[in-house]
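ok trying again, last paste got cut off:
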Amino acid sequence: MLVISAGFSSCDDGLEEVNLNPNDPELVPTANIFASATKSYIDFSRNAFNSGRLTQNWVEYWGQTAYADEDRYLYRESSAESIYQNTYLVATDFKSIIDLNTDEATMADAAASGDNDNQIAASRIMLSYMFYELTNFFGDVPYYSYGSDNENFQALAVDDDLNPVFAPQEEIYADILNELRESADMINVNAAVFTSGDNIFGGDAAKWKKFANSLILRVANNLRDVDPTTATSAINAAIQSGVMTSNADNAVQSYETVDLNASPWWRAFIGRTDFAVTAPFINLLKGETGNFGLDPRLFEMAAPISVGIEDVKDDNYTTSDDPADYVGAPYAFRNMNALPSTSYSFMSSKVLRPDYGEVLMEYSEVAFILSEENGFDQANYEEGVRASMEKWGVADADITAFVSTLPAASEENVLNQKYVALYMQPNTAYAMYRRTGYPNVLLVPGDTVDLPQNQVDAQAEGNRIESYTFESGVNGVTDLPFRLRYPQILQTLNGENRAAAAADLGNGDTILSKLFWDVN
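nice, full thing came through this time. structure:
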């Protein structure tokens, strides 16, 4: 037996080395993890299903060209499941960066990618961004915090508990504000965040600090109607620390010109033409609704109806400055297949290009939040409009002319203009609508729409529809959904905690249950 045992022992010698893959690094550089995580998050959160057939539709920037189920709130279960599961998957990457920068055994290796504290701060900022969007979709969710030992924050601790409780949304909001405040304060602006792999700010620590403070404005502003004291206090501290002050500070995830690393919207249009700019948005830009007159951003955000999708993708057309050449696709029109694509406008080549940069937050939003914080201040309102127009490439003379004719700042005017500025950032616009009821130019179930004459004439003779009524696909829904239902898979994976969270919702786990900050 001793001889046999010795034989087994000798067989183990060197096995650990044999099992090492020489082609895999033992420690992945944190810069690589960060680059992958930010891209992965934007890829899935802004793609054709999780944005294009969800909030990008619901806030009526774009509508579908083939069918209208999601436009009428019959969204796919796979979208809710993807948003939920992928958020946690990417969150584990950001947590791993934090762990590698705090573990004494790996801190030195992690520092090769940038300042340890700055890497931690940037990861905390991205986690805050992601959990803010997640909780705004569902309400209470499992939550992770770097800086808090709240017993309700159990997410990402897979070694301890595979069934985390759903943290109350009020506690999540409070902690996100704290995480962003601490992250901004811990950033060393004299050191790089990442020496490579930062495809948002190129490692610029000062811009990450401004981003954190500006996100505080966004999160705190959503608390304005339920906790104005906390909102104002957080906003004032953020301003004092330093927020975005120009478009040079905009947080933008960059993409490449090759299809493999192209923007999610470009990939959505490879071989497909599922979306077009909606009539409610086009009509607002044309001045047919709202209080603003013709908005020159129309010519930068949309393409004329004469331009086909291939010419848009090739940027092979001449922009028209005649508003009559721009017609929006009818929203939630169940006979969209009867309309040829020549009867409505696609998005412009500034949007539909492979290297379109997906905006996480921009300076114009900061200006609009400051306008609201200051009682709908005129100067901040005008600055928000000007910044948005500059970002979209509107000529200086046209900007000056438009801003000079803006109606006086008011809740309606400021928030409708903020909605225009948030074009292509539908999740933020969706939160604003739920909180305020603005923009007030959206179609809602029960509204009747008269089709423009060119779309009536474009239909087959004998089967022409001149008007239609927006019919919700969900019984009892007379406005935009207030939230997403929890993914059905949670009933199996974390049923008890999911049931407890659903029981706290006013109308159960339905799209009719408002979140705590939605008191509009």
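cool. The chain has a mean pLDDT of 95. Residues 77-102 form the longest helix (26 residues).
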